[in-house]
UniProtKB/TrEMBL annotation:
Domain of life: Archaea
Chain coiled-coil ranges: none
An annotated GO BP: negative regulation of DNA-templated transcription
Keywords per UniProt: DNA-binding, Transcription, Transcription regulation
Xref: InterPro entries: GAF-like_dom_sf (IPR029016), HTH_MetabolicPath_Reg (IPR050707), Tscrpt_reg_IclR_C (IPR014757), Tscrpt_reg_IclR_N (IPR005471), WH-like_DNA-bd_sf (IPR036388), WH_DNA-bd_sf (IPR036390)
Protein name as it appears in the record: IclR family transcriptional regulator
IclR-ED domain boundaries: 69-254
Any matching Pfam family: HTH_IclR
GO molecular function: DNA binding; DNA-binding transcription factor activity
Protein's organism: Halobellus ruber
């Protein structure tokens, strides 16, 4: 069997690039998108006009924005993911007990995707929360590393080859050997940590969520560095997560008392 990748349909690639640029710019005209992507303005205008007629972008005078039609596709994909039903009750209990903030995430094409967020009474500002649908590099997040630790080294290497190990902060792991060493530790403990590796001043603890033999995502709890300190960060939260994972395993088992 040939290892050659199938030929990409360039028009679909271009359409996605235009949509991504509209999101990055928080709306723009055809000229600005064309200049940023180095594509002819008339070509961009044709794409935007088609996307507008199909309901995927909306137009405000000369400026285009992503339309809500994408929400239907995104919510469909999100709601059919098994981690929501399986782990959301446990996430709610965890956040109610700690008052912190928690996430359900999964791996999608080598990126870490946020599927759900729960905010406790202690809360933190919006920059720590992210948003549902957000896509991040896996190696800088507790949930991402927890998932990677369940994958074969070959799969992890393929993700690294595709995306590299970009630096978020001075604490981000950017060395492949160091990452593999940490993944080996996570496999032993079942717990991954993010110690200011994604955002300065922020820490998190995460664990992989499995269903049978398949890793379906991760559950993470985090907060400000000044609050997640000492035994609370290194022992208490990891123990709480292990208990949550056990609960999720029971909920997903054939003989589960919840069924």
């Amino acid at each position: 069997m040939s290892d050659e990748q199938p030929r990409k349909i360039q028009s679909i690639v271009t359409s996605h690039q235009i949509i991504q640029e509209l999101q990055r710019l928080d709306g723009a005209g055809a000229s600005e998108v064309a200049q940023n992507l180095d594509i002819g303005r008339s070509t961009v205008y044709q794409y935007l006009s088609t996307l507008h007629s199909e309901g995927y972008v909306k137009k405000n005078e000369t400026e285009y924005h992503i339309g809500l039609k994408y929400l239907d596709h995104g919510m469909y994909a999100r709601n059919r993911h098994p981690i929501l039903e399986l782990a959301r009750p446990s996430l709610d209990s965890l956040i109610e007990e700690t008052g912190e903030i928690g996430w359900l995430t999964c791996e999608d094409n080598g990126k870490l995707v946020t599927l759900d967020v729960a905010v406790g009474e202690r809360g933190i500002n919006d920059k720590f929360r992210g948003r549902i649908g957000n896509r991040e590099f896996m190696h800088a997040h507790a949930g991402g590393k927890a998932i990677l630790a369940t994958y074969p080294d070959e799969t992890v290497s393929e993700i690294i080859d595709e995306y590299g190990l970009p630096e978020y902060t001075s604490e981000t792991i950017t060395d492949t050997e160091a990452l593999f060493e940490e993944l080996a530790e996570i496999r032993e403990t079942g717990i991954a940590v993010n110690d200011e590796e994604a955002i300065t001043g922020y820490r998190a603890v995460g664990a992989a969520v499995t269903q049978g033999e398949e890793t379906i995502g991760s559950i993470t709890i985090g907060g400000p560095k000044n609050r997640l300190t000492g035994t609370y960060f290194l022992e208490d939260l990891p123990d709480l997560l292990r208990g949550v994972i056990n609960e999720i395993d029971l909920r997903g088992s054939v003989s589960s008392p919840w069924e």
